[in-house]
Amino acid sequence: MASDQTFVDFVVDQIQNAGVIHARKMFGEYGIYSDGKIFGLICDNKLFIKPTQAGREYIGTPVEAPPYSGAKNSFLIEEQLEDAEWLSELVRVSVKELPEPKPKKKKKS
Predict the structure, then answer these.
(1) Superkingdom of this entry's organism (predicted)?
(2) Which tens digits make up the pLDDT trace of 50-77?
């Protein structure tokens, strides 16, 4: 089941204080970015955050699950979706640990 735009807009709105946030449609679901770094996915109207040590410490005991079949586990965020301040801080501490995006290769003409 694909995620609906209403849920994606809600999540993006909740984390507006965590940098320049945008969602990008990917294979019927959405990648979520902060300042150009992908930090999570929205799949089946559920938010998944890439696991980092800082994120694990911030959450305490995270619920981990794969966002889709065959994927590695991510932090599944459910109960805290309504808490914009908590969610924004989770995104901020997680993004700090994630690597910078690789520069895109220029296409040959």
Answers:
(1) Bacteria
(2) 999 999 999 999 999 999 999 999 999 9
Rg over alpha carbons for the chain, rounded to the nearest Å, is 14
- Confirm whether pTM is higher than 0.90: no
In the structure encoding, which two tokens stand for residue 28, read together?
A: 């019927």
Fill in the amino acid letter for 107. Answer: K
Low-confidence ranges of the chain (pLDDT < 50): none
Q: Where are the beta strands (DSSP E) in 1-109?
A: 21-26, 29-34, 37-43, 46-49, 63-65, 74-77
The pLDDT assigned to 25 comes to 92
* Domains of the chain as residue ranges with CATH: 5-97 (3.30.1460.30)
H-run or E-run covering 97: helix 84-97
> Residues 6 or more apart from 5 whose CB is under 8 A from it?
none
Q: What is the pLDDT of residue 1?
A: 62
Residue tagged 């994606």 (tokens):
8
